[in-house]
Amino acid sequence: MEKIKAAISAVGGFVPDYILTNEEISRRVDTSDEWITTRTGIKERRILTDPDLGTSHLCIRAAEDLLRKSACDPATIDGVLVCTITPDYPVANTAAYVASRIGAANAFAMDLVAACSGFISALYTAANFVESGRCRKVLVIGGDKMSTIIDPMDRATCILFGDGAAAVLVEPSRNGYGIEHTYLRCDGTGREFLRIDVGGSINPPTVENTAFGGQFVHQDGRSVYRYAVTNMCEASQNVLNACGLDASQIDYLLPHQANRRIIESVTEHLGLPKEKVLVNIERYGNTTDGTLPLLLWDFEKTLKKGNKLLLTTFGGGFTWGSMYLTWDY
């Protein structure tokens, strides 16, 4: 029996219309466009301003874009995976709602939580479903409405995050290309450095603990930077070694869009020229689960069949990983 190789066969994306610029942020907190740009590489980010719309709206719009472009019949989709840290509700599966709204009536649906590493984790999961022969089409959507969990007055975080989502369809490879190797790891001792204190089973929300901003993201930026660079580089090198590749053979590096300095450090460590690194952080900021699929969506016309892509990411938990794939269309 011939081994099935899973591949990305279509991409879709969506970002809200509202653009939050550095200048606007600098009018409410002590910062400036120059300060933000120099330290993060971010010039603007998109914000879903309608309070009645959540992450599902972003994911639905991204999925609809994919379906429209690919002419995929949603009824043929076997599974829908939504990776997010900002579900519509703590209970009520976001993926199930998305599946119903896009017409994926015959699909199972799962939410997957791995912070900024969610997309690679979900893509790896989808690939395993397809390669097992149990599924033919799995839709993977990475999206977050980060503006709902960021304190707009916290200079350390309000400059970093934006809202957005993108989707990929995973199917058996048409051309022999596809997902070649994945490396995923975690370190639970790192959760103190990047977290939301309030809202879980240990510290349910109360009037008292939300009054002090416990429901918002808090991070130790220096520790996160150090862990991110070290582990993204280690994971990427592990994948390259496993595939018998040198970094120079990679056509494009797709790094998690958390911070321009992290991206530059990983790029330098791997010895890649800047023209081989896909970056859009200046326009979207850190969309958490959305960063990597939004890169694929943004640069879809740049990618050519057979291109060698190295994806790498790092997120709260800590979680991290890298994936090597060859572009199938």
- The CATH C-level class name of the largest domain: Alpha Beta
Strand content: 15-25%
Structural class: alpha/beta
Strand order of the largest sheet: 1-7-6-4-5
- Described by the principal axes of the CA atoms, the overall outline is globular
Q: Please, what is the average pLDDT?
A: 97
Please give the number of β-strands: 13
Oligomeric organization of the protein chains: single chain
Q: How many domain regions? A: 2
In short:
This protein is of the alpha/beta class. It has 11 helices and 13 strands.
Notable characteristics:
2 domains, 11 helices, Peroxisomal Thiolase, Chain A, domain 1, 5-stranded mixed beta sheet, alpha/beta, 329 residues, globular
Could you explain how this protein is built, in words?
The protein is α/β, with parallel strands linked by helices and 329 residues long. The protein has 2 domains: 6-172, Thiolase/Chalcone synthase (Peroxisomal Thiolase, Chain A, domain 1, 3-Layer(aba) Sandwich), CATH 3.40.47.10; 179-326, Peroxisomal Thiolase, Chain A, domain 1 (3-Layer(aba) Sandwich), CATH 3.40.47. The chain has helices spanning 22-26, 33-40, 55-70, 94-102, 118-131, 155-158, 207-211, 221-242, 260-270, 281-284, 291-298, and strands spanning 6-14, 18-21, 44-47, 79-83, 108-112, 138-145, 163-172, 179-186, 194-195, 218-219, 252-255, 308-315, 319-326. The protein has a 5-stranded mixed β-sheet, with helices on both faces. The chain has a 4-stranded mixed β-sheet with strand order 8-13-12-11, sandwiched between helices. Strand 4, helix 4 (94-102) and strand 5 (108-112) form a beta-alpha-beta unit. Helix 3 (55-70) runs parallel beside helix 4 (94-102) and helix 8 (221-242) runs parallel beside helix 9. The longest helix has 22 residues, at 221-242. The two termini are 24 Å apart. The model has no long low-confidence stretch (mean pLDDT 97). It is found in: Cytoplasm. This is Beta-ketoacyl-[acyl-carrier-protein] synthase III. Its main location: cytoplasm. The active site is at residues 116, 256, 286.
